[in-house]
Amino acid sequence: MFTGIVEELGEITAVETLDDACRFRLRGPVVTDGAKHGDSIAVNGVCLTVVDHEGDEFTADVMAETLDRSSLGVLAVGSRVNLERPMAVGERLGGHIVQGHVDGTAEVLERKPSENWEIVKISLPADLSRYVVEKGSITVDGISLTVVDAGPDYFTVSLIPTTLALTTLGLKQPGDPVNLEVDVIAKYVERMLGDRAFGRASSEGATAK
């Protein structure tokens, strides 16, 4: 489990294209400190497994399913990426519960800079809009953010200078893709309420008979 608090802005140093997958080599001095084979590291919000580790770089394999469902497929040598290690037991949950399982991709629509922060408008896929609410949490490229405004097909977030300086959202421009992970609690609530409604309907139907 992650928290959406990015530890460092890493870099893709090598890309190897395989038949049905891709292998990335990434540089990240902070997240590789103490890393070992089999560890998890979130890359732009996608939970990847460390295959190899040497110095301040690590290698991770990305299967076709992940490439299809996330924006990792557009990464190239030199691309900057958000990196985060899993939260250790007993540490503070600085952001919100993040699984590293991308729900979909979106696009940066607009940026509105101001003196002390910047408003970024991002598209919202129709199948995810019901999980996004004003003042709720959402993960964008692995960053835990608070929704400022939630429209039918977009949402906005307000970014402080630290977020702009230390994450990929300081670099993204209109048209650039981003990974989205909605709040998993919202999905669980939806499922439980749906099952309860179905259960009541089945029970009432049986009684009527």
Topology of helices and strands:
Blueprint: E1 8-17, E2 21-27, E3 40-43, E4 46-54, E5 57-63, H1 64-69, E6 80-84, E7 104-113, E8 118-123, E9 137-140, E10 143-150, E11 154-159, H2 161-166, E12 177-182, H3 184-208
Antiparallel strand pairs: 1-2, 1-6, 2-5, 3-4, 3-6, 4-5, 7-8, 7-12, 8-11, 9-10, 9-12, 10-11
Pathway: Cofactor biosynthesis; riboflavin biosynthesis; riboflavin from 2-hydroxy-3-oxobutyl phosphate and 5-amino-6-(D-ribitylamino)uracil: step 2/2
Enzyme class: transferase
Organism: Streptomyces lanatus
A few lines on this structure:
The protein has 209 residues and is of the alpha+beta class.
Describe the model:
By secondary structure, the chain is of the alpha+beta class. The chain has two domains: 8-84, Elongation Factor Tu (Ef-tu), domain 3 (Beta Barrel); 104-185, Elongation Factor Tu (Ef-tu), domain 3 (Beta Barrel), CATH 2.40.30.20. Helices cover 18% and strands 39% of the residues. The protein has three helices and twelve strands. It has helices spanning 64-69, 161-166, 184-208; strands at residues 8-17, 21-27, 40-43, 46-54, 57-63, 80-84, 104-113, 118-123, 137-140, 143-150, 154-159, 177-182. The strands form two sheets. Strands 1-2-5-4-3-6 form a six-stranded antiparallel beta barrel. Strand 10 and strand 11 form a beta hairpin. The longest helix is centred in the C-terminal third of the chain and has 25 residues, at 184-208. The termini are far apart. The model is unreliable at 200-209 (pLDDT under 50). Lumazine-binding repeats lie at residues 1-96, 97-193. Keywords: Repeat, Riboflavin biosynthesis, Transferase. Its EC number is 2.5.1.9. This is Riboflavin synthase. Catalyzes the dismutation of two molecules of 6,7-dimethyl-8-ribityllumazine, resulting in the formation of riboflavin and 5-amino-6-(D-ribitylamino)uracil.
